[in-house]
Amino acid sequence: MTTKQTPYRVLIGKPGLDGHDRGAKFIARALRDEGFEVIYTGIRRTAAEIAATAIQEDVDVVGLSSLSGAHLRLFPQVVQELKDRGGADIPVLGGGVIPDEDIELLLKEGLNAIFTSGTPADTIIQSFTTASQQHRDHDAQK
Amino acid sequence: MTPKSKALLAGLTDQDPRSIGRAISAVENNTAEAADILSKLDQNLISNVLVLGITGPPGAGKSTLTSSLIRTLRQQKKRVGIIAVDPSSPISGGAILGDRIRMMDHALDSDVVLRSMATRGRLGGLCASAGAAVRILAASGCEVILIETVGVGQSEMDIVRLADITLMVLAPGFGDDIQAMKAGLLEVADFLVVNKSDIAGAEALCMDMEQIFFAKEEKSEIKRVLQTIATENSGISELLASINRFSHYIATTGIKEKRRDKAQTAETLDWIIEMLRPGLIQALEKDTGKSDPRVRAQKLIDTLKLK
What we know:
A: globular; B: Rossmann fold; 8 strands
């Protein structure tokens, strides 16, 4: 085997009734181009489906996208579903059309980071990299 | 054996989703636990599992067919494992693993264990760890394992080796691509599934394929060319019935055992080459010879005493 670091595995999902997947696909492609293995679960998934998939696929990070306004309910639901399935250690990052005043609330609910339409792609990728590496380090200590 | 390996092995026996995922990652990433886990898997479960390979050109409907097969197998109360392989980018090494999108109906079924894997540089239509992943899924109680390859052309034959039974999925309208494949995968596939059979040209494709599969059919007396419309779940029970008959046929004639033995040897050879690779690269970097590559390779092998 090569000594190169093995690729980070991340899940990109869209919870809830929201068919606008341009942002999610953009991030998925940007992550692929940075060497991530991206499991894309498509649109209109429940929080439980996303969490169960994240566990099965043994991902380092879950990334959620929402443009429908339901992020305050759906993002924390995914965090909770992960916890219920023994995946409390998997960081959840969120992005989309999210008002500034909601960001603090989501971070309090256990989201690792929140991005809005103005966040540069580099910043988002950096957050995914940091969160993935932290998850790997945490895993190695166990 | 580390405590971590022990915990993962216990988790596999308990069919714990997290442990299954982690065990496959351990093997895929070649961690310290990999050998521990693989050497202690339940061999009985592994030898009894049925491994179905699903291959075909991009867009023929492999993922949708896989999803329909899962649905029907679940109706028969079988625990199903799936390995879905997609290509890694040759430039970044990253990948979009999107086969799941068509299989999300089964996301909350704990007896459907799906793992998406990237090829990570391998060119045969699978990834290097696919065989190990199959064995881990089998050891976690999966009775049937479906392996979906990347979209293939003519020469991605890895699947034929790893699977007990290989299904080649085609759809009408691929034209000359299929003509070209006649000399490759088509020869070695066990079943030919004409998917999207409601599209014009399906009958002609079937007739064409029946000619190729005629000799195989005669031997086992099992229909080898079947039509499906995977999006409507049509033709799936018939396909599974034929697969079951064929599975019985290869088990009773000793063909399955022979295929497994061959696969074992081939995978071992793959791993030998894979494990030698870093050392060889090192030796090559130190070597200052400037002769013809083939001559230089021979010299290096002689110096390393690998023969």
